[in-house]
Structures are given as C-alpha cells and as structure tokens.
Amino acid sequence: MSTTDGSDDSLAPPEITTDQVLRLDDERFTTDDVAVVTGAASGIGRATAIALAVNGLTVVGLDVDEAGLEETVETTESLDVDGRMVAAPTDLTDGEAVESAIDAAAAEGTIRYLANIAGMQHIASIPDFPMETYDQLMDIMLRAPFLLSKHVMPHIRATDDGVGAIANMSSVHGRYATRDKATYITAKHGLNGLTRAIAAEGAGTLRGFSISVGYVLTPLMANQIADTAEERGITEDEVIENVMLGQARTKELMMPIEVANLFVFGFSSHARHLNGGDLLFDGGYTTTYE
Question: What is the pLDDT of residues 13-25, one digit of tens each?
C-alpha cells in the first residue's frame, strides 16, 4: 500500500538531485546486493529507493501504486546512480503477494536490506475511529513489516557473512502520543517493538533499527493538514505553525531525501553498532519544551 497522494502542489519537496544524497563507500553497496523498499512510489519511500540506488545497490521497490513506482524508476534512471531500481507492484495487505515480491527481489541478487516505510494516516478521535480503517492501517504499517521481516531474515542469514539490516520507519509518534492519531501511534509503538525483536534474533550481524522524525514534507503529510485543521477547528496555517512545528526547536519541515540519507547511513557498515536502536532526527520535538 502506498502513501496517500497529495493534491497541494505548494506543499511539495524539491526534485531530488544526486548532490543531496549521502554517498558512502561500503563493500556491500553493490548491484549484487538488494535492498527492498516499501512505499517506493512516493515520499520517503521514493527518496530512499533513489538514495540507495545512488549508493550502488539494486533496489526493489514495493508499492500498490504502479504508476508511482514507474515514476520512481524513471527518476532513478535519469540520475547518476551506481545501482539500479526495479519496480515490484505489491499490495502489502496480501500475504501471498508479499511473499512473491520477496521471491522476485531474491531473483535480482542477494537480499541484505529491508526498509519498511509504507504508511497511511487517518485523523479521528478514538470513539470516532472506523475499525475498518484501523484494520487497514495496522495491516500496512505493522503486520506487513512483520511479514516482510519474516521472509527477508532467512535471505540475510543465508549470505556468506550473515550481514544485513532491517529498518523500520517509526516517528516521534512512536515515542509519545498526540490527539486524533491513535491507530498511527499504536502502529509506530509496535514497530519499535518489532525493531528490538529483530535485533534480539539477529545474532549481531543482522541488525534491526528504526528511524524517528517529526513532520516531513510528503504527500501523506500534506493531506494531514486539512484533516487536522477540520478535526481541531483551526486553520491550515495554524496546523503547520502550532501543531507540526510549534514544539520543535528547528522550525523547518524535513525533506524526504534527508530521511532517506538516514537509511543509507543505517544500512552501511558505519552503523554496525546501531542495533535495536532508533535514529531520532526530530529537531528537538520530543526532547525539549518551553
């Protein structure tokens, strides 16, 4: 399942260029090594797929949005990349489709990395939250990462050195709670637990880590603004200034490529001691207050 497409062109990150990408020398960043990236049709998933391809990996992008995936492939091919990008249209709520996607990824090379990024959002209070939406969100954001990890871990263990990593896109909402996002918060807290479980079973070489950021300028976030404004009875400008950036010390929204660079670092050998931990890049959102 992909992130939701945004309709407000004024809330769109700039086009990705290779000079924005963190480039690292790593002996396992080769086209023979595969990184599976979910949500690769847009937002953070797209940026991460591109950044990993720039660093020389073969990237297999999973998303239900086939057109968006093709745009990611086209963007990757238009840039100076040492790796390559392969589209694998997949409904993450379909268990057989997920297993087939990992089989297809294994046919592209040696699977070493998995980035669980795909997500969705729904703004509503707990009493008003529709349970069918709860089930869909949990399927995409918690069940699918668990299932993907289940299928990917044997591939990493079967490599010549057992080295690889599974990264989960968490959030400041995996550390604390705000109003009207109960299911999203529940899923992100669950992802943090999954991250630690992967690390516990990874024998030191198969690492699990998470990435937690504040508000990132993605299509998913753009759609949240209007929903949050309606739910709280405030203007959209007030949502950005007071809800999204009000508590942060860094008064700028993050760009998807900035988050993607954290995945690049986390997958690299430079981060070999990052295991079971969380990369918190939130501008002071969760650790400071006035």
Answer: 889 999 999 999 9
